[in-house]
GDSL esterase/lipase
Amino acid sequence: MQPALKLAVVALVAVLSCSMDRFTVAQQDKTLDQRQQQLNANKDDDEGNANNVPALFVFGDSIVDTGNNNHLFTLARANYRPYGIDFVDGIPTGRFADGLLPVDYLAILLGLPLVPPYLDGGDDILHGVCFASAGSGVLENTGHSYGQHIPLSAQIDNFVEVKQRLYSLLGEDAASVLVSKSLYLIVIGSNDFFDNYIPTHSIISISYPNDTSEVFPPYFEEQLLSQMIQQLQRLYDLGARKIITVGVPALGCVPYMLNRNQGQCASLLNDAVQRYNSALKQNIMSMRTSLQDAHLVYANSFDLAQRILANFTAYGFKDNQTACCGWGAYGGALPCTPVISNVCTNASENVFWDYVHPCSTAYHIVVRQLWNGPQDVIDPVNLQQLRLI
Ligand SMILES: *[C@@H]1O[C@H](CO)[C@@H](O)[C@H](O)[C@H]1NC(C)=O
Ligand SMILES: *[C@@H]1O[C@H](CO)[C@@H](O)[C@H](O)[C@H]1NC(C)=O
Ligand SMILES: *[C@@H]1O[C@H](CO)[C@@H](O)[C@H](O)[C@H]1NC(C)=O
Ligand SMILES: *[C@@H]1O[C@H](CO)[C@@H](O)[C@H](O)[C@H]1NC(C)=O
């Protein structure tokens, strides 16, 4: 697409999304209790009573942002239709999906309420808080082309503030038990790869990546890894013990990349992601052995995604390459945009909901596998076992 046209479309997305905000917020409050009731009714069978996990704290990007970006001045927002068409009452909450996110499925399995966004500023912090911000990454600059964003280090700063509030609410003993028994879910890194794949690339830039030209800046993967490990160490130092780190998924196979690569998965991008993932996993496993009581687990979302994509009909999907809500070839040319986008009639038939995000049904499959999974998807213990530690 021509740069000028692309900018115009991005501006239109921004205008359309902002005009829908007010409707969304009013609707959201009214139905919150109702939504929780319906979700609790759908709890999975193997959700037991023993709950060693008082709270779920969440860090990351759009895969787990339950609504923080609604409060930011950014193009990375999803609080407008058709986002949320499969959410309770079809409400667009800011989640980048047709319905629930992985963090929601996990909260339900744990018997916890849906995790509230930190920037909603609510008082209920006892069951967890979501610090994630769509478009953000591990590196400070990742996401700046969308506007305001909260990098991982700042998300952890926000956790420090919540931790202080927990200490004054509960007292030192109870608060430190809560902090050490809670689950910490980290899903981040995708945007670091996208933003740095061809250094000048961004959502509003004029040059697009394709798989003939792998151009990461020098030391990109090393920097990403060392920043990530630093933040994990920081979380541990703050008292976190049960930390789930999710690797970067198969980014080369999302409609956005298929659109730029004649329908083929971008294998150089996938290779770079896999190199990073395996170094990340190695580091996590050595932190696990060197740090006392560090119950760190690594979730292999790359292989999980690849398996679902390669065998999509066995998982109940009809399409493994087209965004349900999108535009252009594979629906991968533009974000899901009101008015402009084509929207499929049943989002559960496509693995992908929009140009970069899977649909909620795909997220559900992934979370079920991490919950029950064998070591090749979640190492060294699955989430069900981690909960009981
Ligand atoms: C990839 O990008 C290069 C440089 O912009 C271009 O010459 C090439 O034709 C593109 N390849 C594909 C498969 O689109
Ligand atoms: C979709 O499935 C086909 C058949 O299994 C496979 O060849 C193709 O690579 C898959 N597409 C993506 C984007 O993973
Ligand atoms: C695909 O799914 C079928 C049915 O569940 C299974 O038998 C087969 O091993 C799977 N293949 C791959 C490559 O995952
Ligand atoms: C949507 O598609 C899924 C997967 O193919 C199917 O299980 C479900 O019944 C469909 N829903 C409707 C309302 O057709």
Q: What stands out?
A: Residues 1-35, 41-49, 199-207 have pLDDT under 50 and may be disordered. Residues 219 and 225 are 10 Å apart (CA to CA).
